[in-house]
Design a protein that fits this description.
alpha/beta, TIM Barrel, eight-stranded parallel sheet, 13% strand, tryptophan biosynthesis, Trp_synthase_suA
Length: 263
């Protein structure tokens, strides 16, 4: 893990301020817009950015991100453009960026070229949504050699023993999906209890991805874990919103940040 990402995690532990990770689909609706939106996220309070690499069959993601991926694929953005996007973002911002993808994209690129692209873009790691933790050791080790991370996923079906195993191999933070493939499947009380159990056996930060779409839910989720990951709601704001998208996105990020920081 590089100093940029470790600084975010350590500061969150010291200040007890929730970590806010916000997601965008690269090249939705076009690449220059993605750069503008990344800057807005960073400027308005996001601690981490998940940059989703467009994929033709994004089965893990819901309908909003699936539509965004379809739009982005029409832009015919390749690895060179993604690298340039990362480099342009780093000219002005140091907010950590995690590239989110599917394992097919890693295999088709090749592990070594994939990691080389992440380094050239000055990204901080990867999320590989369909790679089981028990099959991720080689990729995690290769990324670690380059000071990059591979945060694992946990879900409502993850047992406490399974969580202990995953947390021991975690190199940064964990992402709680909050669902088993569809809408959230746990009550708030069940979620609170599960987070208490997990946090009792590991100090690794857990970011809750639970269909967060407003400040109140952001506050509820971050109260019980270590932060939130907001994806579909962020991408939905970009879909068909026209010339006011940047202002709308900025206001939404500020609102979520304020909700998370509220006592």
């Amino acid at each position: 893990m590089n100093s940029r990402l470790s600084r975010v995690i350590e500061q969150a532990k010291i200040t007890q301020r929730p970590i806010f990770m916000a997601a965008l689909v690269a090249a939705d609706p076009y690449l220059d817009a993605t750069l503008d939106y990344m800057k807005v996220l960073a400027d308005e309070g996001a601690d981490l950015i998940e940059l989703i690499l467009p994929f033709s069959d994004p089965t893990y993601h819901g309908a909003v991100i699936q539509r965004a991926s379809a739009r982005a694929l029409r832009e015919e953005v390749g690895w060179d453009e993604i690298v340039t996007l990362g480099q342009r973002f780093r000219e002005t911002h140091q907010t950590p960026v995690i590239l989110s993808t599917y394992y097919n994209r890693v295999l088709s690129r090749g592990v070594t070229p994939f990691i080389a692209s992440l380094c050239a873009a000055d990204f901080d790691g990867a999320l590989v949504t369909d790679l089981p933790f028990d099959e991720s050791e080689k990729l995690r080790a290769a990324l670690s050699e380059a000071n990059l991370v591979l945060p694992p996923f946990i879900a409502p079906t993850t047992s406490l023993e399974r969580f202990k195993h995953i947390a021991q191999g975690c190199d940064s933070f964990l992402v709680w999906t909050g669902h088993t493939g569809g809408d959230p499947t746990m009550t708030a009380q069940q979620f609170e209890q599960r987070m208490r159990e997990f946090k009792a056996v590991s100090s690794r930060p857990i970011l809750g991805s639970m269909k967060v779409a407003d400040a109140e839910r952001a506050r509820m989720v971050s109260r019980h874990c270590d932060g939130v990951l907001v994806g579909s709601a962020m991408v939905w704001l970009i879909e068909g919103r026209g010339s006011q998208t940047t202002d709308t996105l900025a206001a939404f990020v500020r609102d979520l940040r304020a909700g998370m920081d509220a006592e």
